Amino acid sequence: MTAVNSSPSRRARGRALITRLCVGLSAGVMVASLACKPKEPAAPPVDPAAEAAAKAQADKEAAAKDRADKAAAKRAELAALPPLPGVEAPKAVDFPKPIVSSLDNGLEVIVLEDHEMPVVDISLVVKAGNIYAPAEHSKLAALTANLLEEGTKKLKKEDLDTKIDATGGSKSVSAGDELVVLGADVLARDADLGMKLLAAEAMEPTFPEESFKKIKDLMIQEVESQKSSPFGLALQMGEHVIFGDKSPYGRPFPSDAEINALTRDQVVAFYDRHYHPGNAMLVIAGDITADKAAKLAKKHFGKWKAGEAIAPPSGDKQTAPDKTVVHLIDRSASAQATIAVVVPAPKIGEAGYLDGKILQATLGGGLSGRLNQVLREQLGLTYGVGAFNSYGYEGGMFFAGGSTKTKSAGEFTEALLELLKEPAEKGIPADELGRIQSKLSGQFALEVEGVGVMASKTITQRTYGLAPDFWERYRVDIEAATPEQLKASSQALWGGPVQIIAIGRASKLKDALSAFGEVRVYDTSLKPQG
Amino acid sequence: MRRLAPLALAGIFALSGISGVAALPSTASAAADLSIPIEKFTLENGLTVVLSEDHSAPIVSVYITYKVGSAQEVEGRTGFAHLFEHMMFNGSKNIPEGAFGYYVDNTGGSLNGNTEPDRTNYFETVPSNYLEGMLYLEASRMDSLILTEESLGNEKDVVKEEVRQQQENQPFAKTILLDWPAAAFSSWAYNHSIYGSMEDLTNAPAQAFIDFFDRFYTPNNAVLSICGDIDPAKTKALVEKYFGPLKKGPELQHSFPEEAAQTAAVYTEVKDPLAPVPLSLVSFDIPPPREKDRDALELLATILTDGASARLPKRLVDDEKLAATVMMQAGFPIPTYGPGQLATLLVASKDTKLADLRAAYWDELEKVKKKGISAAELKRAKAKLYKLYVEGLSKTLYKAAQLATYESFYGGAEKLNGDYKRFDKITAGDLKRVANTYLTQERSVTFDIVPGADAPGIPGGAE
Predict the structure, then answer these.
(1) Does the structural domain A325-522 have CATH classification 3.30.830.10?
(2) Residue A176 forms contact with B (CB below 8 Å)
(3) End-to-end alpha-carbon separation of chain A, Å?
(4) Per the CB < 8 Å rule, is B461 touching A335?
(5) What homologous superfamily does CATH list for B266-451?
(6) pLDDT tens per residue across span B360-416
(7) pLDDT digits over A295-334, tens only?
(8) Where are the domains of chain A?
(9) Second label for A486, Cα 20 to 30 Å away, from A303, A374, A438, B36?
(10) Could you tell me if B171 lies within 8 Å of chain A, comparing CB atoms?
(11) B462 at interface of A, judged by CB pairs closer than 8 A
(12) In this structure, is the dihedral angle defined by the CA atoms of residues A443, A448, A453 and A457, taken in order, positive or negative?
């Protein structure tokens, strides 16, 4: 019996037991009657403040229990539903197989044939994304990429644009963390032209001086836009606290001055180092034969001067704070609060990554995910709450969050934390796990529509050096996960401290969020305040 | 694989396929053969059903359009159409609250809905072996949606959060979704908020929602389109099995609101504390979709803004560097099937004043009005519209959505095939004429949205 335990916390536990017994919540009536009649003189008067705090704590615990009970009851109700009528055996899914070859200069050419529609997507993928830029020039990679479209040796920007537009197609360039993608989306009959234009941009850019101000101004505005978006801020802050500002994944927003200081010489040097066949791959997907695609690749990219692959920078990743911290971004005109919880997570290909996918689907997967079931459907606290795991060369991040009215930020955060920690404490029942596994398997099968998703999976496999059969095994590996394994992975994610990110009116949120940990306030440039 | 052989079955508009790339002729207007099979029938209760078979992947999209939107609401009872877009996922006979999403999520598929002034749409894309289940779910909620004070109360809270998140807490959104329609449309039906008044929602009793449901959520007020890996005969039988027993609703007369002709320019400057950059929204009253002048205006918008070589991006972004982005689109941001709006979004480049940007924009419109456009510009825009047509047929959900739209508002689903050719009839003269008729100062509504608060010390963000 706890009451006769001699551990140091005996008194506290004994009192809790007595309280429970005295209000009749236990069958131990005899013990209760004894315990409620102290032999000693009456206990000292109770501190009203302490009593109020105890009551508040008890109310909070009761509310949490009520939430959890209702959520469990709803899950049980849904699990007991009859199957949908008329479900037939699933049909086999034929994923297009990538056909890989290489040009003499080392450029890898990957073709995914899909003759359903008369269109071809061409992507020249170069490992020249933002992580390759030096910390003090964090936008150098993006500036270089954006300038590729501004003119080539033989074609001015105007000519490049006129030629692609005349076909009805379009082209684009984008710079992500790891990769720059030059893309052309054209009718199949225009594949030759699409590839010609991409080759010119990749191989013979002129980086015209008169385009620098335009592109820099656009990049400055892009940073401002990201700062104006609650989600954009949450994501940037998440990576900042998980990876640290010494990692290329955790850099703060660049200043206008930093962007404006970039020079043409720096761009040319960055281009010379990173843009060559050994550091790139050409992915051609759609209504084209592998043979024809290979011939066009050779025709347009065959003369690109060879060069070696560049290894990713070895970043100086710091560990996230060893305690739970609330990172509060003061966005004074906010009409609600945006709350996210982030933790470090395995990156793709590492042990535990697929468990993260299963947990993402369990918690954040659509309307039936645990987070929406409680925070939206049961409590009406949010329009929607989601979860995802992102990753880079240096690791991954599990992100879960949503928005709620400012005055319910505390309640929202508390319920969100409970939901995230629940699988670590109680595990995921086998029947729920089975349902999530078959859902993920079905989701994967749906991605066969349109060749674009398979093209991007192929790029991911090669960028992160995943096993050649990673995607072929994906569904089998997802199905193989066990409840024990999931519980261990959940404990690894949420068993320790977490990082809470809040965006909104700091003056209205600070007190409510201080219950969860130390509150650090930042401005929307993520600079610490006060 | 999509069926390539021509079909000649009654009611099926199946033409030749598109497998051979090289076989495609080199001009857009000659590339007429890209089309999809379309079969159509109506149940006794008035439900119109459109089927399109496509076995390229084991996937099916089920899409229902109900011809009710915010324009059918009455004053004092706003926000109903949009609240239904939420309530329809909240339980019906044999489908308890939460079960709709649970069933669809478990297939690995996706679902959603959206609300417009003239209609509300619901759709799912799932592995094709779940087709019958989707019809069961859709028929159940069309037949017997649960509307109680309790379930409505929770969903009203969710909608209030949605309004805060999507309208109040995003840059530009409040002006674009609330202030702009109020100024651009003259009819109450089109100019009140699709989200509606939160006060109206709070005050409305459950019975008001039940009446709305009984009136508008009926088989004869809906179009069901099913596209993907289906057997048309089997699918028809399944549709009859699940939707056939549903009771016909009241006969509704569908009409679109009339819009008064605008005779003087409207200009408003708004300060938006959330805005990261200055943005100008310039819109014009235009005719309903598919009227000849509307088609000409849509073609003109494509000429002016689609692609970096188009007139406005070339001049405003590249040559004069006044704009960061330019976009011009009919039916944006609020799509209507009656009289509509052609809106231009002009995002100023860094350090540019919106007045200077707008002056250059108007100057370019004046050039079109005086000198017209070139043959090369016309050809390019038609190529863009053909590419758009091809993309619109590339996924089951896109096809299902378009078939529902064509059947509901464009005179029949079968008109989708080859529809891009309607732009071939438009001449350079038409474009000059519509520019002069519609793109005038008198018909324009302009909102300049500039970063900042209305008065110092008074931040936005009222909750």
Answers:
(1) yes
(2) no
(3) 51
(4) yes
(5) Metalloenzyme, LuxS/M16 peptidase-like (3.30.830.10)
(6) 999 999 999 999 999 999 999 999 999 999 999 999 999 999 999 999 999 999 999
(7) 999 999 999 999 989 999 876 777 778 899 999 999 999 9
(8) 1-31, 99-301, 325-522
(9) A374
(10) yes
(11) yes
(12) positive
Q: Do B101 and A117 touch (CB under 8 A)?
A: no
A471 within 8 A of A461, measured Cβ to Cβ: yes
Strands (E), B273-339: 279-286, 323-330
- Asked whether this chain's domains B35-243 and B266-451 adopt the same fold, the reply is yes
String of DSSP letters for A63-86:
HHHHHHHHHHHHHHHHHTSPPPTT
Sheet holding B323-330, edge to edge: B266-272, B444-451, B279-286, B340-348, B323-330
Q: What CATH fold (topology level) applies to the domain B35-243?
A: Cytochrome Bc1 Complex; Chain A, domain 1 (3.30.830)
- Quick one: chain A helix, strand, coil %, rounded to 5? 50, 15, 35
Interface probe for B, chosen from A78, A121, A201 (most Cβ of B below 10 Å), is A78
Model confidence over B151-167: pLDDT tens digits? 899 889 889 989 988 99
B24 to chain A, any CB pair closer than 8 A? The answer is: yes
State which residue of chain A sits closest to B102, comparing Cα positions.
A368
**Assigned token pair, B426:** 């438009």
- Mutation test of the interface with chain A: which of B52, B60, B93, B107, choosing the one with the most A Cβ atoms within 10 A? B107
Contact A169, A187 (CB under 8 A): yes
Pairwise CA distance, residues B59 & B134, whole Å: 12
Chain B, 44 to 63: residues with Cβ < 8 Å from chain A are: 56-59
Q: Does domain A99-301 have CATH number 2.60.40.4070?
A: no
Nearest residue in chain A measured CA to CA from B228: A449
Planar angle of CA A50, A53, A59, nearest 5 degrees:
140
Q: Which residues of A touch B165 (CB under 8 A)?
A: 336, 382-384, 403
Does the beta-carbon distance from A86 to B18 stay under 8 Å?
no
Predicted-complex ipTM score: 0.89
